[in-house]
């Protein structure tokens, strides 16, 4: 099946495990009559940061696509071209809509028109850490209600183990459609890295787990249209847990990186230098960089799906529980560090004017979901500081306590007692930050203020 560079830390002998992976390409190459015919049409349910680029990828392969989203506002935004896509993908989207190759609708009845259905709805968590399954349940209900014989249905939303069977397989069976015979059902979690041009969807391997072997093959052929590398696992449950493990591992790595950065500060060492040096070891080390916290749609949310499921079974995962507490508390650590630095000045935190540079959770995207900047701003305001922010990608924010802020148009002209660097975006000039005497670098990598202090 060819070489696959596994990202493992098993004493440098990762290659010994390559034969444990089943590659769809090896099945296609042998083709004993199991590979399906070319895919002609697909429906994508949910047109967010995963669904919309998936629509574009399918259309690029000459496949007719129906994009389904229950939000009229989201559909209008897409039609207006105001979407979070790279310019080539925006052009492809516009062209697809104009020529009819991409059709957008809020009508779930159209789901019965296509050969395959791919579900890409969000799976957030509530403030108490419990899964918010409203969108997922609604989408799966619509898909099961409108499914027709011969269709392939693939769930890609990150969720708890057993979701595919519970929310798709069982409702289909109640309709009299037998998965593996009448319809084909599988799970294949999305692997999209927003804002990172180095991790394109078409170059990122995917994992597929079907209810039956035939389900896996048919689903793999669908997923193979958006990526050139697909691997099969034994069941939807194995694929579901694979995705959770990926993001749990990342959560552990980032929590450790932030804690290690504090150790480095106590020892007056640079955590980036130490991390890069450790990374020269060709086996046994998989590191991460520290930062102001962990944001986005995956890492701060997905582990709670497993913790919630385990609690329901009377079980626990103590290490993971502690990791998620560390992640939750990280923004407050940044606030505490900012207060410490301000107390060293004559101003003090209660009267300080503080500017946060960048509020999205990640450089290069305008996404505020779970962004550490929001609790950081709120925490500084609670201490009495006058807060402001600058983010050319995010014009307005609303903090948890209801405070609304607008991005400063001329941040360099302000009289800031502290500038806290949270998310500097590429292609913007931040050299002006270095003119302020007190700069707290929560990224640990900001180059424009040699006098910066670290969290």
From TrEMBL:
It holds the Pfam family UDPG_MGDP_dh. GO terms for molecular function: NAD binding; oxidoreductase activity, acting on the CH-CH group of donors, NAD or NADP as acceptor; oxidoreductase activity, acting on the CH-OH group of donors, NAD or NADP as acceptor. Residues 355-448 form the UDP-glucose/GDP-mannose dehydrogenase C-terminal domain. Coiled coil: none annotated. The keyword Transmembrane helix does not apply. InterPro entries: 6-PGluconate_DH-like_C_sf (IPR008927), NAD(P)-bd_dom_sf (IPR036291), UDP-Glc/GDP-Man (IPR017476), UDP-Glc/GDP-Man_DH_C (IPR014027), UDP-Glc/GDP-Man_DH_C_sf (IPR036220), UDP-Glc/GDP-Man_DH_dimer (IPR014026), UDP-Glc/GDP-Man_DH_N (IPR001732), UDP_ManNAc/GlcNAc_DH (IPR028359). This is Nucleotide sugar dehydrogenase. It comes from Actinopolyspora xinjiangensis. The lineage of its organism: Bacteria, Bacillati, Actinomycetota, Actinomycetes, Actinopolysporales.
């Amino acid at each position: 099946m060819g070489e696959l560079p596994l990202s493992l830390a098993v004493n440098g002998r990762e290659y010994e495990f390559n034969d444990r992976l089943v590659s769809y390409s090896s099945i296609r190459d042998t083709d004993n009559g199991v590979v399906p015919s070319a895919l002609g049409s697909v429906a994508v349910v949910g047109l967010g940061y995963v669904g919309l680029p998936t629509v574009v990828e399918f259309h690029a392969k000459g496949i007719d696509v129906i994009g389904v989203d229950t939000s009229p506002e989201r559909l209008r935004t897409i039609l207006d071209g105001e979407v979070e896509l790279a310019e080539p993908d925006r052009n492809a989207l516009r062209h697809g809509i104009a020529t009819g190759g991409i059709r957008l609708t809020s009508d779930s009845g159209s789901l019965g028109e296509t050969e395959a259905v791919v579900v890409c709805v969000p799976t957030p968590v509530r403030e108490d850490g419990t899964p918010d399954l409203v969108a997922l349940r609604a989408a799966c209900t619509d898909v099961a209600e409108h499914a027709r014989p011969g269709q392939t249905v693939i769930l890609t939303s990150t969720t708890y183990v057993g979701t595919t069977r519970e929310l798709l397989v069982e409702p289909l069976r109640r309709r009299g459609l037998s998965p593996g015979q009448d319809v084909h059902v599988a799970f294949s979690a999305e692997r999209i890295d927003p804002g990172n041009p180095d991790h394109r969807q078409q170059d990122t391997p995917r994992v597929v787990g079907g209810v039956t072997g035939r389900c896996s093959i048919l689903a793999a052929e669908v997923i193979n249209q958006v990526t050139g590398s697909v691997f099969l696992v034994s069941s939807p449950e194995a694929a579901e847990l694979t995705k959770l493990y990926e993001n749990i591992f990342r959560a552990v790595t980032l929590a450790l990186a932030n804690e290690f950065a504090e150790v480095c500060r106590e020892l007056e060492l640079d955590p980036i230098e130490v991390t890069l040096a450790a990374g020269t070891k060709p086996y046994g080390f998989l590191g991460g960089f520290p930062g102001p916290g962990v944001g986005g749609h995956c890492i701060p949310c997905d582990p709670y799906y497993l913790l919630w499921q385990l609690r329901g079974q009377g079980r626990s995962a103590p290490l993971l529980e502690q990791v998620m507490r560390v992640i939750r508390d990280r923004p407050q650590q940044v606030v505490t560090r900012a207060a410490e630095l301000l107390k060293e000045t004559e101003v003090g935190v209660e009267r300080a004017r503080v500017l946060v540079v960048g509020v999205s959770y990640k450089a290069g995207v305008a996404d505020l979901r779970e962004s550490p900047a929001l609790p950081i701003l709120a925490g500084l305001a609670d201490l009495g500081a006058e807060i402001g922010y600058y983010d050319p990608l995010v014009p307005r924010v609303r903090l948890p306590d209801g405070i609304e802020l607008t991005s400063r148009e001329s941040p360099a002209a302000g009289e800031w007692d502290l500038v806290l660097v949270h998310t500097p975006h590429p292609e913007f000039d931040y050299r002006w930050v270095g003119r302020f005497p007190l700069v707290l670098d929560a990224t640990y990598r900001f180059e424009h203020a040699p006098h910066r202090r670290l969290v």
